[in-house]
Automatic annotation (TrEMBL):
InterPro entries: RNA_pol_sigma-70-like (IPR039425), RNA_pol_sigma-70_dom (IPR014284), RNA_pol_sigma70_r2 (IPR007627), RNA_pol_sigma70_r4 (IPR007630), RNA_pol_sigma_r2 (IPR013325), RNA_pol_sigma_r3/r4-like (IPR013324), WH-like_DNA-bd_sf (IPR036388). One of its GO terms (molecular function) is DNA binding. This is RNA polymerase, sigma-24 subunit, ECF subfamily. Residues 23-92, 123-171 form the RNA polymerase sigma-70 region domain. It holds the Pfam family Sigma70_r4. Residues 252-310 form a coiled coil. The keyword Transcription regulation applies. The lineage of its organism: Bacteria, Pseudomonadati, Verrucomicrobiota, Pedosphaerae, Pedosphaerales. Keywords: Coiled coil, DNA-binding, Membrane, Sigma factor, Transcription, Transcription regulation, Transmembrane, Transmembrane helix. NCBIfam families: sigma70-ECF.
Length: 511
């Protein structure tokens, strides 16, 4: 479309916000409808996807082909972004479920291998052959999932599912026999204890017995020939002088005893090595399971601690003479965040592209702390996560982006200064720094002025990136710079020094 191409050209060459707004108005219904269908009617997720698609359009506009069919590009990108967001949400839910399982694991009684061992084979016998083969290959034969899949004519993913289902069935059968444990605990026990090293001497015994049994089936003729050969050998042996025979026998006997002692020692060392290998494998498997959940568990525990502290603060804070009214209908997100900042006495750190939603409350609070808790609950019901950052900040992000809300303001006082030589000189008054929705270029210019350094051109930054911030509390310069660093980092932008008196904003490679 010629009009689309002209508007894109105006935006990329002149930075025209009017041109970009015209593109958004023209195509927003197309993008939102596609996102809504992909999200199975989830309007909040569809709004997030729509915001992301147009943000990406602003960032990639200069790299689009002059002949691009913009509606087609927007439709494809909306479908891709929605699919990616759905996968992210599913992974988050899976992490939370695993975290809950890990927490429940710590509360369950320990079950030792001595309790499981007598019950294992009867329970294994009740499994279907396919399930039993999967467990034998994975835990008894120490095969990785790819090898298990090849043996069962399955893909690696299908083999993992087969093993997981079989492990759960085995756990149920053990539970029926009085051994209660989780699938994770059962997997750990099987990994560590299911296989014991056989004595080294038994290998030769079994091999000899098997060969002898094979020879015994050779038929009468072969037995007759063998007997003749044995008789001939016996006659030849009798002809050997008895003295030499005795000396040789004593020597062989001593060598045999020495060899048996060595074999017993080797068997003991091999069993010990096997036990340590099993313990190491169990430890590695447990670490692999926990490593991906560690950050989420720490965050959840931090949230529980924070809520307990705030509950104590609400109980201990004296009530005001008149209650704080929290009665409003269809209040937009921006005004709700301003109200939260006033009651929590914190400056808000938030991504600019938050889902547009409204809030309705009909309640009141006896003090600011109680009001802040009620507003946090209202935000949580609409899919937002609140993370307190020190004494001055609160991070508000959509729940599916909770991983980016990592508080670090405590490091302002404990770590070396971000910009050496920066003079604090009091605090920045409330409301003096206000970005309703400013371009990154504007924010970095003010950043450079705060630290008294020259800003080098940042033409390589993606166009259209926006920052939203207002200091709702008095802040020192170091605290204000921390806030701007955090907001820029959420956009993958970092301010770096160039020489002694200049800085430059660059795209950060850290994820």
């Amino acid at each position: 479309m010629t009009d689309d191409a002209q508007l894109l050209r105006r935006f990329t060459s002149e930075g025209s916000e009017d041109a970009f707004n015209s593109l958004v108005t023209r195509h927003i219904d197309l993008v939102y409808s596609a996102a809504l269908r992909m999200a199975n009617g989830d309007s909040h997720l569809a709004q997030d996807v729509t915001q992301t698609v147009f943000t990406d359009l602003a960032r990639k506009a200069s790299s689009l082909s002059p002949n691009v069919i913009l509606p087609g590009w927007l439709y494809r990108h909306a479908c891709f972004t929605a699919s990616k967001s759905i996968r992210t949400e599913r992974r988050r839910q899976a992490r939370e479920q695993t975290a809950m399982q890990l927490n429940s694991l710590s509360n369950e009684p320990d079950v030792s291998w001595d309790q499981i061992a007598p019950l294992l084979e009867p329970a294994m016998a009740e499994l279907a052959e396919t399930d039993r083969d999967a467990l034998v290959l994975r835990y008894f034969n120490r095969q990785d999932l790819r090898t298990v899949g090849n043996a069962l004519n399955l893909s690696e993913d299908a083999a993992q599912k087969r093993v997981s289902r079989a492990l759960d069935k085995l756990r149920t059968l053990l539970h029926q026999r009085g051994a209660t444990l989780t699938v994770t605990a059962l997997a750990g026990l099987l990994t560590a204890e299911a296989v014991s090293a056989a004595p080294a001497g038994i290998i030769a015994t079994i091999s000899g017995t098997a060969v002898a049994a094979t020879v015994a089936t050779g038929g009468f003729t072969w037995a007759l020939v063998t007997k003749l050969l044995l008789i001939s050998a016996l006659i030849a042996a009798i002809a050997v002088p008895l003295a030499i025979q005795h000396q040789t026998g004593v020597k062989l006997l001593e060598e045999n005893r020495s060899l048996r002692r060595q074999m017993d020692e080797a068997s003991r060392l091999e069993a010990e090595n096997k036990r340590f290998s099993n313990l190491l494998a169990s430890r590695n498997e447990a670490q692999s399971l926990a490593r991906t959940q560690l950050n989420e568990l720490l965050r959840l525990r931090s949230e529980v601690s924070r809520l307990r502290q705030q509950t104590t603060l609400v109980k201990n804070q004296p009530s005001k003479s008149s209650p704080i009214s929290l009665k409003f209908e269809n209040l937009d997100l921006s005004h709700l965040l301003e109200l939260y900042a006033q009651t929590a006495h914190r400056s808000i750190l938030r991504p600019t592209a938050l889902p547009q939603t409204s809030f309705t409350l009909n309640t009141s609070a006896t003090n600011d702390a109680e009001a802040a808790l009620l507003l946090e609950k209202a935000l949580a019901e609409k899919g937002f996560t609140t993370v307190l950052d020190g004494d001055k900040f609160a991070m508000i992000v959509p729940a599916y982006q909770a991983s980016i809300a990592v508080p670090h303001s405590a490091e302002i006082k404990t770590s070396p200064p971000r910009w050496p030589g920066l003079e604090e000189r009091g605090q920045v008054p409330t409301g003096e720094v206000n970005f309703p929705a400013a371009f990154v270029e504007t924010v970095t210019k003010i950043y450079a002025e705060l630290i008294h350094r020259k800003l080098i051109s940042h033409d390589r930054l993606p166009p259209g990136l926006l920052i939203t911030f207002r200091n709702q509390t008095p802040l020192t310069k170091s605290e204000l710079i921390y806030a701007l660093d955090t907001l820029l980092a959420w956009q993958n932008i970092k301010v770096i020094p160039v020489g002694d008196d200049s800085v430059q904003a660059v795209v950060s490679t850290a994820q």
